[in-house]
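Researcher: Structure prediction, please.
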Amino acid sequence: MGNISEEKIRTMIVEDHFVVRVGLAAIINSQPDMVNVAETGNGRQAVDLFEQHRPDVTLMDLRLPGLNGVEAITAILAKFPRARIIVLSSFGGSENVFRAFQAGARSYFLKDVKGRELVEAIRAVHAGQR
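Model: Predicted structure follows.
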């Protein structure tokens, strides 16, 4: 029985809007192959939580208190180069997208993304795709 839970994709949500964070966690936890293991609204705390939980895939907002998303991505990947991070942002500005990918993000979505698209992206990024 314990085997099934080990196969789940473990996610962490870094998002400073509580309602968005709860919504994302609900979408993830409703998937039979996923479980959200950590969440925070703070960039600096995200780095600590990543270290504690080692999630398979992290959903990262770019505008955060503490460290911003790009700084948090950079800090996580400096310690854990194999971390898989998907950026979620309200802003589609190409500069933000460029900085996120430069920092090492594997995927980028606007927050109006559909739940199904998001869970498919989590699976794809977990499988090593961009």
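Model: The mean pLDDT is 92.
Researcher: Thanks, that helps.
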